[in-house]
Amino acid sequence: MHTSYVLRRLLQIIPLFLAVMVLVFTLVHLIPGDPVSTLLGDRATPDIVARANKELGLDKPLLVQFGLFVNQLLHGNLGESINLKIPVLRLIGERLPVTLFLTVYAAVLGVAMAVPLAMLAAVRRNTWVDAVIRAVFQVGLSLPVFYVALQLLTLLGARLGWFPIGGYGENFGEHLFHLFLPALTLGLNLAAILVRTLRNSIIEVLTAEYVDFARAKGLRGSVIMTRHVLRNALIATVTLLGLNIGALIGGAVITETVFAIPGVGRLMVDAIFGRDYPVIQGLTLMFALIVSLVFLATDLIHARLDPRAELS
Amino acid sequence: MTAPLLKVRDLNVRIPTPGGVLHAVRGVNFDLMPGEMLGLVGESGSGKSVTLRSLIRLHRPPIQMTGTVEYGGKNLLDSSESKLRDVRGGRISMIFQEPMSALNPVLTVGEQIGENLREHKGLRGKAAQDRAAELLDLTGIPSPRARLADYPHQFSGGMRQRAMIAIALASEPQLLLADEPTTALDVTIQDQILRLLLRLREEMHMSVILVTHDLGVVAQTCDRVAVMYGGRLVETAGVNDLFHAPKHAYTLGLMRSLPGAGEHRRPLQPIPGGPPDLRSLPPGCPFAPRCEYVTDDCRVGEPPLLEVAPGRFSACVHYSELPALKSTPEEVGV
């Protein structure tokens, strides 16, 4: 449908990419320490260090290094991990599906919790039901993700033994099982954000005149709630969801570390500790790309839900 | 004599507000005959729209509705939700003042007609599509089939009101409740919509209750008029009788505040003061504080609506002293 719009948005990613490239390259080289001394330790002799630096091209001036990086990138190559000796692209290919699985899983759980509870809170607004739902999620919102993760891990994982305390599993069913606690952690956080907004938009929509018109048409309550109320109330929520899925992917760094999940978040943490420049750069670019695509998808879905929205 | 289609008895609507309970409709009684077009007029806050909405129990808690609205031998105010839904939108339809806010912005006009056809006529798919296009055509929307896929915001104001009428008429109702359907439209479009309502009433043998604050609209369209003031009916009469000889001081005031047309041009005489506060009404006639005919008798108790001439009801102590007017519905209507 909006082909030219989509094309334009995709082209906009290019300047964003350039900016991210410069930024991440600069930041990475500003971090104190370097890959060689991290790899070889304190006792390496200066000439071993120098040889390693030469081998990795780290002895060249920064500008030259940047040029090489850009040149590589233009050839579709993100370089090779210094510590793992594996092409960064292959690393991403192995680890990204895990993170995406976790993100989608968390989003599904979050929405599945948020929508019915927001509806309930809105319909029973200003009663104790509403108060309890809002209070619980208000607390959930103020608890840091790593704390919730550790609590769930201790209670449902270690003490009760209902869920594994880490890992990813081998097949779809095992993925669902292994990633349940981390997805729940992220999902709760997401639901807390969504419930508030969705509850308020449902309450607002309920007072709209088209809801009275729908009632005057003799439609049953469930039809009015889903077709007329929820569809309108979701418009604002979809944008919020899109923004937060971006944050969710970034948040994977914490969750994947706590739950020992082999995703890109963990990879990023390891790469930063090991000063693995190519991996850090490659992952940052990948995050930028994914977030841009998620935002684009959000705008397209928003336009589908709201026929009045103009894509421009 | 034929039986009335709708019998309203002692209708009361109470709206709780932070400043106390607002008694918006206070013991309204009227009958509506099959095929009749009744105008319900009054100024803002007189309770006319609130009355109309309570006829199909559209108010939601905490708003309270009591009394009876008898339709088809049943009181709609205490029938079950499922029985009520058959009548609502089925036998009795309603159109609203502002089609832009009464039509759902995210559903196409076709979908919004289709809902009604499915709920009340059991039509789906192709049959529903065909019927929906027919309805748009009936209400005078050009190239109806193509417009089914359009959203409300793609229609002009007048077209939107036509579309809303098409939605309301999808179930072929016996009674159409019209809540100020032309107020939001400019005068030429207003005229077209009124003509459309008159034509559809003939073709579909419907009764219509038309709520309006515009006596011109009433003159142009209605058979009978019910005038509301302060949550009560203060006068009901045939439209000609009402315009020739109002039998309530408030109605007379309304007539005098209308601009005349052509040679009959005369200075406007506005009614002094404002509508009463329904949270704290004085004893006696609610219009008394603004009335030029007021005497002590008016302040004793609230005058009941009595038959003062065949087919004419008034709640005015001084109905017999009021002067006849030269105005005719035709003159007011244009």
UniProtKB/TrEMBL annotation, chain A:
Primary location group: membrane
Matching Pfam families: BPD_transp_1, BPD_transp_1_N
The keyword Transmembrane helix is assigned to this record: yes
Membrane topology, from the record: Multi-pass membrane protein
Gene3D superfamilies assigned: MetI-like
Domain ABC transmembrane type-1 residues, every copy: 96-302
BP terms from Gene Ontology: transmembrane transport
Domain of life of the organism encoding this protein: Bacteria
Subcellular localization(s) per the UniProt record: Cell membrane
Keywords from the named record: Cell membrane, Membrane, Transmembrane, Transmembrane helix, Transport
UniProt GO cellular component terms: plasma membrane
Family indicated by similarity: Belongs to the binding-protein-dependent transport system permease family.
Entries under PANTHER family matching the protein: DIPEPTIDE TRANSPORT SYSTEM PERMEASE PROTEIN DPPB-RELATED (PTHR43163:SF6)
Protein's UniProt name: Dipeptide transport system permease protein DppB
Organism: Deinococcus marmoris
Source species taxonomy: Bacteria, Thermotogati, Deinococcota, Deinococci, Deinococcales
UniProtKB/TrEMBL annotation, chain B:
Pfam family name, one: oligo_HPY
Keywords per UniProt: ATP-binding, Cell membrane, Membrane, Nucleotide-binding, Transport
Location(s) in or outside the cell: Cell membrane
Membrane topology: Peripheral membrane protein
UniProt xrefs under SMART domains: AAA
Annotated InterPro entries: AAA+_ATPase, ABC_Ni/Peptide_Import, ABC_transporter-like_ATP-bd, ABC_transporter-like_CS, Oligopep_ABC_C, P-loop_NTPase
Gene Ontology terms describing biological process: peptide transport
Single GO MF descriptor: ATP binding
Any one of the GO CC terms: plasma membrane
Chief location of this protein within or outside the cell: membrane
Residue stretches making up the ABC transporter domain: 6-255
UniProt family annotation: Belongs to the ABC transporter superfamily.
The protein's name in its UniProt record: Oligopeptide transport system permease protein OppB
Organism: Deinococcus marmoris
